[in-house]
Amino acid sequence: MCGIWALFGSDECLSVQVTSAMRIAHRGPDAFRFENVDGFTNCCFGFHRLAVVDQLYGMQPLRIKKFPFLWLVYNGEIYNHLTLKKQFDFEPQTAVDGEVLLHLYDRFGIRKMAALLDGVFAFILLDTERNKVFVGRDTYGEFDLKQNGKVCSVQMEAFHCCTDEPEHAVCDSLETLPSGFDEETVKSNIRTLFENAVRKRLMAQRRIGCLLSGGLDSSLVAATLVKLAKEEKLPYKIQTFSIGSEDRMYLVSKYIREKSDSVVIFSGEGADDSLRDTSTSTRLRLPERLQRRASV
Ligand SMILES: NC(=O)C[C@H](N)C(=O)O
Q: What are the protein's GO molecular function terms (predicted)?
């Protein structure tokens, strides 16, 4: 989780505006930066970082030599960044996951860029060559963006909606269902999607832990996580966290922050909603939704 903030063309003094960016400081404990966009009046980015990938060179606004006209702030993880870099032969200048957005945008434009991303994310991308600002988020809006009409004049685009299959979905190869209901194929497809959903989240370079309520969702996530962590030879044991009390999430996150070194926390949160929402999802689409909801 990071805090991202941007200001485009406000008349209010920058030092006043920047104080509003400090309200999201809790989202990024590792570092923060404010940067003016040179040559543009009152155009500024603010960023609070929780470093998950490439701690050294992943600071934002992300800018690279090859595209000096692009400025990017984003929150989240792009699970398929390595696959995309390889697939399109990009030459990355950092190891941070979000750099792939800059290469994809330059090569394919904003719509295809967004459609190719597999992850949970929200981003603000400024193109000073074309004088354009793009604000976007992942298909399911895992990481939302808020706009304050006073300071932000850009429109948020829905790049693709839940009923469109994003282009990266082809990466998970599943058995096709024969006509009629084949329970074994359905079960094995769910297992594949579920395991892949957990596996791709292991890209975090910080210590991973897991919330464990003892219910079905979090137990499944924890069991799969422990199994895959062994397979991937993560150099530490997975810590799990449970608590019974009111306002549970707050207490758990405070405890984790103060008493443990786990930084990236898995949970089964959202699985119920995904499974119950059968009105908008077909039976085949369900595992894919479940997959995304096994969230970091
Ligand atoms: N943490 C984030 O939201 C951004 C990026 N994935 C990083 O590791 O810095």
A: asparagine synthase (glutamine-hydrolyzing) activity; ATP binding
